[in-house]
Amino acid sequence: MKKIIKGLLLGVSLLLLTSCQGQTTEKQPLPTTNRKEETGKIVSTGRVDEAEYQAVMIDGKYEISQARTLSASYLNSHYNLANFESGLLTLSKENYSVDSYLFREGQLLDKQTIMNWLDRKSKDNPTGLNPESEGEPLVVQQVLEQDYLDKKTQKLAGISLGIAVNQVDYSQDPARNIDQETALTVGKQAAQTVIEHLRQIEAGANVPITVGIFEQATKDDIAGGAYLLKGMTKGSEVTKWTEVKEEYITLPVPEGETNSATKDGISNKYRDFKEMVQGFFPNLSGFSAIAHYQDKKLDKMVIKIETKYYSETEIISFTQFVGKNLLSSLNIPGEIEVQINSIEGPQAFIVKKANENTISSHIFN
Amino acid sequence: MKKIIKGLLLGVSLLLLTSCQGQTTEKQPLPTTNRKEETGKIVSTGRVDEAEYQAVMIDGKYEISQARTLSASYLNSHYNLANFESGLLTLSKENYSVDSYLFREGQLLDKQTIMNWLDRKSKDNPTGLNPESEGEPLVVQQVLEQDYLDKKTQKLAGISLGIAVNQVDYSQDPARNIDQETALTVGKQAAQTVIEHLRQIEAGANVPITVGIFEQATKDDIAGGAYLLKGMTKGSEVTKWTEVKEEYITLPVPEGETNSATKDGISNKYRDFKEMVQGFFPNLSGFSAIAHYQDKKLDKMVIKIETKYYSETEIISFTQFVGKNLLSSLNIPGEIEVQINSIEGPQAFIVKKANENTISSHIFN
Description:
- Chain A is α+β, with helices and mostly antiparallel strands.
- Chain A has two domains: 63-244, sex pheromone staph- cam373 precursor domain (sex pheromone staph- cam373 precursor fold, Roll); 248-363, sex pheromone staph- cam373 precursor domain (sex pheromone staph- cam373 precursor fold), CATH 3.10.570.10.
- Chain A has eight helices and 18 strands.
- The longest helix of chain A is centred in the middle third of the chain and has 20 residues, at 180-199.
- Strand 18 of chain A pairs antiparallel with strand 1 (5-8) of chain B.
- Chains A, B: Residues 1-24 form the signal peptide.
């Protein structure tokens, strides 16, 4: 996902943006949902990044989901949360183009419905998606809805559904492993249940639903989980599930292990780069990297460097050194993002965009 | 100070950088200093930002000052530290051009010498720059040396000296205020002492010395202090001190106060922008801004927004909204930097460069 942009916001571009904003709904009814702001006026956030959706705003406010805090509290790490959400955006872009659709946080599923699904099935909770027996691990960990509105009609025109399943159930001691086949089977059943529920809500009765099954990584995995399967509804069913070939890999890969990053040599290149940078700068307290592969190709590398803050001039010199060596040491076609942080906050960042050989850097004030 | 850059590191630029790196010193003696690495090979960090100095590296390592931890421990806030250091870089650029000089952390003054200066004068510490009597407040808080090497000869060709003086001496309870006139008088005397000391070191005997007197802001001032005076040596003296017209102003300015940001209307513009953004996004836990004026002109505004992290999609939408409104609401010629952070770390940033009407944004992974 290409997230850095340059937006010429004057002249022609400003006019274009202004005309987009102008698509208010005072004359058009909103899709029927359980929202209360139906008399409000839809405008969008606008867009400064051509690769991202504009989001729906009602009366100058960002429209939040009822279930917005659920993912943050249910998923077991920030890394899982970020991959779960941004991965579903990526799957959505395949079906709903960023130019023709507006993004809205999920408004059809309410918090209580989702919480009931995430519990075990029982007499008191007949809709639970997790096994009735305490002897079996919890598989379904989170359900995420994203809504996509047609930019012209401003009606709901697509839904995306993320189902997060566990590799490990931490709810009991000791934690219990879940084999991937079981997790996927339960995940697909859960998707079916949620789709049927959406079909009973007027706004969701007929729109296409994009579904992704996300495998949550373990708590201590700083790479985070990834999507394993994707599908699209035909009527009320996903008839065909396709494998999502997505991997998040922590670099460098431990000796002896084999994966996409050892096969294409990135793991070793990164190891050399890291050693050179650590040799240069005397006070780095952390140095980590995650590579994201899509269809076995490296599309992004994120490097996080934690430094003790002693001096502004050290940070400037360090950033220049890292920036200068980034292209020569890590000459990959994908995007590279380097964050340089300290406990005082972000100090600097460097970015090389995908398919380009230029870098941008910024020293924070 | 313009810190964001785009460096075309391929083609011609790469050749230029490579030729700069090529200036090693194996055949040329290093300037005589108290460093131990004199057999080492000078290369520079390289440069990705044309507005910044390249820094000296010895044997692949960044050359740190003996006194490097002193500023961080002696100054009373991160904001003071950043302004003290980057302000001295700015003064240096007036006298030593970034194209012709290399930067090196100060190597001539050792840690013990500086620590003795910062103490009170006494029988045991005859070189102390602070008043002998405990009844008088401590005025001189820090001494910072920066070295500038001629790129061609690789010899020390300029020194910069920052003298930080206090508005408030916190070393005793209750803290004691110091009037600015006294602080400047003591600061200038201190500069004279340090210059005389540098003249006795062989490497510093004849090079020009740029001096700045920095007034440290109070502990709770998030704008940080600023330089008040600057001067340049003639021989062993600064014969003429010039006022540095630099201000850091916290925005919005409280009602009733008057300063550069109320006179040019920026304070009100910022207040409106802040209110609009806070209205849009439901979970901002902090929102602050500092404006930097140079010669009564706004040259930079830094906005820091702290948000609770609930969702990747919230951050993307928020960044787009802020970015879109930045130019229309805050149409200033100077640089604007917006940092969007959470306790999870940096989430996004937006920058508008000086004298441009384009913005760049980046959502961190």
